[in-house]
Backbone:
C-alpha cells in the first residue's frame, strides 16, 4: 500500500520572517474552493487551510499533483519562490494536524 502524504506550507519564510500578505493561505485555498449547499465557501480536501502545530498553514494533499498538476505546480512554485517553510508529512504524522 502506498503511503499517503501531504505538504504543509507555513506562513513563515525559511529564515523565520512572517510572510505577507497575511491572508495568502485563504487566497490560495479559495482557488479550488466552491460554494456548498449552505452558500458558504467549502475548501477542497486537496488544498485547504488548517492548523498545524498551532499555526495556520496551507495543506496540499499529494493527490493534487495527479488530479490537478497545474494547480499543484503553481502552489509549489509560489512556496519555493517566496522561500516559505515547507514540509511533507505522511500517514502516521498526520495526527499532528489540527493540533
Residues:
Amino acid at each position: 500500500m502506498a503511503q499517503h502524504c501531504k505538504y504543509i506550507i507555513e506562513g513563515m519564510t525559511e529564515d523565520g520572517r512572517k510572510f505577507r500578505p497575511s491572508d495568502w493561505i485563504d487566497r490560495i485555498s479559495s482557488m479550488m474552493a466552491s460554494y456548498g449547499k449552505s452558500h458558504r465557501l467549502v475548501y477542497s480536501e486537496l488544498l485547504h487551510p488548517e492548523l498545524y502545530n498551532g499555526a495556520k498553514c496551507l495543506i496540499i494533499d499529494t493527490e493534487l499533483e495527479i488530479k490537478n498538476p497545474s494547480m499543484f505546480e503553481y502552489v509549489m512554485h509560489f512556496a519555493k519562490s517566496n522561500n516559505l517553510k515547507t514540509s511533507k508529512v505522511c500517514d502516521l504524522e498526520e495526527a499532528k494536524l489540527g493540533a
